[in-house]
Every structure is written in structure tokens, then in C-alpha cells.
Hints:
The protein is of the alpha+beta class. The protein is 48% helix and 15% strand. Helix 5 runs antiparallel to helix 7 (252-288) and helix 7 (252-288) runs antiparallel to helix 8.
Amino acid sequence: MAVLTEPGxxxxxxxxxxxxxxxxxxxxxxxxxxxxxxxxxxERIQPGVAERDHEHRFPVEIFKEMGEMGLxxxxxxxxxxxxGTDTLSYLLAMEEISRVDPAVAVTMSVTNSxxxxxxxKFGGEALKRKALPPLAAGETLGGFGLTEPGAGSxxxxxRTTARRDGDSWVLNGEKxxxxxxxxxxxxxxxxxxxxxxxxxxxxxxxxxxxxPGFSVGQPEEKLGLKSSRTAQIFFxxxxxxxxNLLGQEGQGLKIALATLDHSRLGIAAQAVGxxxxxxxxxxxxxxxxxxxxxPIANNQAIQFKIAQMATELAAARALTHHACSAEHTSxxxxxxxxxxxxxxxxxxxxxxxxxxxxxxxxxxxxxxxxRLYRDVRVTTIYEGTSEMQRxxxxxxxxxx
Length: 400
């Protein structure tokens, strides 16, 4: 058991609050779940991962199996067909899937964190019973629509609208960079319901893919995560039931920010999984690659790179688990931002150093590290850029 502080000696944060000791040990159920997901990832996801990447092929069959295992409804209560697991178990599963295929992991993250989670937290009973069971079972996937061509980190530029018409909401506009677009059956969409109210005029509405007036654009050509589908979605007098509103009208930005606070933990775990694999590849290659009559692992320059990668990996994993333990406290947003920015940037450094250790071979698509190098890059961008995470952290500390 690893406890960072002794009772009665808790350090104080910059806000003056005390932090209790942090136990990073896993219980038996968490260990069993992690091991099961690791076996599944290595036996069912890893074969063909390079081919799927080259072909830009979305692995529908894998997600059906993941649904059967409960991996797509981990945060959904059992009464709605989900696994009802704790957040740490979800992060452990995310790490194991990401270690093998970050493209599969991002689909898992979006379905769990930014679709199922806000429906569970803010949806009405009728909506939950309609949307959650098929999502949790893997019969369909989830999507999240916040970003637009002219509105990224700044939601004030949002132009997608939703107006109330009797017992329906009618949406018009478009959303960009939508993960799972074309495969998702349900999308959590933030739209402007009151043009005069600024950020208080945004609302969150759940849109089914079969809603009239809903359509999906062409898949985006991306640097990495090539077997994950990303595209724009469009609303043209798209009509959905009024009961599909999350929370209250005007709470859309609040719901979106709460959702992102939670989902950043999943992206931090994704980065940790990628980092873990980059380190494993570096160690293995350094032992096998012989130059000047000896393995390059004998060179101190290589040893220092590997030592730094391992140290930053331990720090990223610990910070992610720490943020998870505080998800119901006043520090949840700050710690999630800290975990996300550190883990994603550390993973980018790890992939760069691992590729450097591979030398010229690392620049070839035949080597796994070249795919990880492409896949990891987006982790400092989506779910909030590193720059936005630092703003979140600073505002939490300076607002008190």
C-alpha cells in the first residue's frame, strides 16, 4: 500500500485546504478487471491494429465485443444496463485499451465520458431509459457535439441553434471534429437556445442519429487515430423530443464544462496507456539493437532517456489517480486539468524519445512507435488544449 502522507501531517494546498493521504493500491475487483481488459486488448484488439490504421477502418466488430464486456457502459448504472463501475476502474480499462490501440480507446472514451456520463448525471428518466441501454450494450456508440468550425475553446462563437416548438426542439447548424460520427446512435449537442443570453443562452440536447434533419459529413483525414471516425455533423430543422434536454434550459455550458472536467480523466488515462507502450517499445528495442558491437541499452544517453520516461510515467499515472480520487471535491476541475495537461505532454515526450531511440527505424511505418507518435499528438489538443488546462488550473488557484 502506498500512502503519501501520515495522519495528522496532511500538506495544505495553495488554496489553504488540507489533502488527505492517497492510497494508490487497487482492490481485488479492480485488479481482476484490469487483467481481463489487458488480455482482451492483447488478444482481440492488437491483432490487425496496423492494418486498420493503414486502411482507416473503423473496427465495428471490436466495439460489439466491448459492449458485451460492459466496457462501453462502465459509468452507466446497472438499472440502465450498464456495468456501474467506479471511475478508477474505468480509467484502468482506458489505460489498457490505449496501450494497445489509442484509436479504439478514444471511441470508448467518448461513448462513456461525454455521452453516457452527462445523460446519467443530467438526463430525465425517460431519456435515460431510451438512450442508455443500447449505448451500454454496445448496440450503438455515443458522440459529443460542442466544437464548431468557428467555435473551439471559446464557446461564445457557437452558432448552432435550438428553438422550442411545442413538444420538440428544432436544431439548425453544424458541429466539427465529432468522434464516432456516422457510427454513433446518440449525440450530446450544445446549442444556443437564447441568442440574447450569452453563455447562459446555451443548452445541452441529446440528438438521436435517426432524427429527421440530422446528417453526417465526410470523414476527416487526420494525422493520427486513423481507424477512429471523425467528421462534421449537420442539423437542418432537426427535430427531437423536448424530453431530450439535459438539465434545464440555459445550463448547456455548465453541463459541457462538468462533462469535460470528467472526461479529461479519461484522456489522461489514454495518455498514460500510450506512454506505457512507448516505454516498453524503447526498452525492448534498446536491448535488441546492436551498434559498435553492443546493445545500445549499454549507452548512458539511452539509459537516461529511458529513466526519464519511466519517472514521468509514474508521475502521470499517480496524478491521474489522485485526480480521480478527488472527483467529487471542490478541487476536481483543477486536478483533472493538471492530470490531463501533465499526462498528455509527458506522453508526447515519451513517444518522441522512444522514436529517437529507434533511430531511423522509428521513422518507418513498420515500427509501432511511428503510429504511437502520430496518435499521441492529439492528446494535448482534444478535451481542452494544454493552454486551456493551464488557464483552468490558474483560475482555480487565483480565484480564492
